[in-house]
């Protein structure tokens, strides 16, 4: 669901995809799917755990869909509302002597 208060980012790749039986662990540190290991894809399994930690730190949402040959991630972050302008007290005025 999209609203004007969220910034939404989509990232899609054309890698090997994430096997459904492994999808529950992809955001854990040092977790790599069997397909990534057997394909020779570089990495140690930290990237998605970093992404997840950053999104959680911003109180956002992270989800994904994967099939063989494609994985799409969606990141939703709350946009920061601008701070309201401070209300300043009125400046006292003085009459100038004529």
Can you describe this structure?
The chain is of the alpha+beta class and 98 residues long. The protein is built from two helices and three strands. A hairpin with a 2-residue loop joins strand 2 (61-67) and strand 3. It is rod-shaped, with a radius of gyration of 24 Å. The mean pLDDT is 87.
Features:
single chain; 98 residues; alpha+beta; 3-stranded antiparallel β-sheet
- Report the average pLDDT across residues: 87
Quickly name the level 1 CATH class.
Alpha Beta
Task: Give the count of structural domains.
Answer: 1
The CATH topology annotation reads as Heat Shock Protein 90
Radius of gyration: 24 Å
Q: Can you count the helices? A: 2
What is the rounded distance between the termini? 66 Å
Which range best describes the helical content: under 10%, 10-25%, 25-40%, 40-55%, 55-70% or over 70%?
Answer: 10-25%
- Strand tally is 3
What is the H/E order? EHHEE
Percent in strands? 15-25%
**pLDDT < 50 runs, ≥5 residues:** none
Characterize the biggest β-sheet: 3 strands, antiparallel
């Amino acid at each position: 669901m999209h609203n004007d208060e969220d910034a939404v980012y989509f990232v899609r790749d054309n890698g090997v995809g994430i096997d459904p039986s492994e999808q529950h662990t992809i955001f854990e540190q040092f977790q790599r799917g069997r397909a990534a290991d057997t394909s020779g894809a570089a990495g140690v399994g930290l990237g998605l755990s970093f992404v997840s930690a950053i999104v959680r730190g911003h109180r956002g949402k992270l989800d994904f869909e994967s099939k063989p040959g494609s994985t799409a991630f969606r990141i939703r972050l709350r946009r920061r509302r601008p701070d309201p302008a401070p209300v300043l007290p009125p400046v006292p005025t003085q009459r100038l002597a004529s």
